[in-house]
Amino acid sequence: MPPGDSTTDHSSRENHPVWAVYDERRTARLNIKCLNAEIKSLQTKNKLVEGTIALSGASSIGGFWFLQNVPGLYAWKTLGAVAVVLTVLKPILSLADRRAKKERLLASYQILEHDLYCVTLGVQERKSYDDQAIKEFHSALARKREILGQADGSNASPRTIKRCQDEVNRELPSSQFYIPPDN
Fold it and tell me: Is residue 132 part of a domain?
């Protein structure tokens, strides 16, 4: 009987230890996507803060005709007040520092994903989850431990995480992974 035709064989293939490699690879990809979303959000927030501060500091803008009526004056004064608050909060928020830290973490996860991709290729080429693949996988897990030591938790929203998970599942579906036959 060909592999995959019996229920027993199908069950053993679903429980094959190589799935640990594939699950870690998908998790690394998910972390990359979530970190990219967080970095983009930090960039947007930083641009908004910088733009608000810069805009309020340009006194010539206050001379525009539409800012000379009552609503315009309130808007201009409100923008100035927000800019003052943002100027005080900017060092506390440290958006640029947080972004730089997330970018370093992203680079580490990209290296981890590459390592796991190499393990995946090795399993496919050798048609076996052999000692070499296991050794490479353990090396990747050691890298993951180092990364987790750097991580400060995700700030991604549940909606962003769900969107990223859906993307990962489309990019790396279970059906694409090679499951070696039992020896």
Answer: yes
Q: How many CA atoms lie within 13 A of 2 on its CB side?
A: 1
Per the structure, the count of domains in the chain is 1
Give the structural domain span for 100: 18-176
Q: What is the pLDDT of residue 5?
A: 34
Are the beta carbons of 102 and 153 closer than 8 angstroms? no
Identify whether 125 is part of a domain: yes
Token representation of residue 148:
């987790």
Q: Residue 50 belongs to what H/E stretch?
A: helix 19-57
Q: Specify whether the CB–CB gap between 172 and 29 falls below 8 A.
A: yes
State both tokens at 68.
């000379």
Contact (CB, 8 A) for 102 and 37:
no
Whether 13 is covered by a domain: the verdict is no
What's the CA gap between 94 and 101, in Å, rounded? 11
Q: What are the per-10-residue average pLDDT scores of the chain (183 residues)?
A: 36 83 97 96 86 66 61 69 67 80 95 98 96 97 93 85 97 94 72
If we measure between CA atoms, which residue out of 109, 49, 56 comes closest to residue 80? 56
* Residue 101: inside a domain: yes
Is the Cβ–Cβ distance between 55 and 78 less than 8 Å? no
pLDDT value at residue 154: 75
Give the residue carrying structure tokens 């973490």. 105
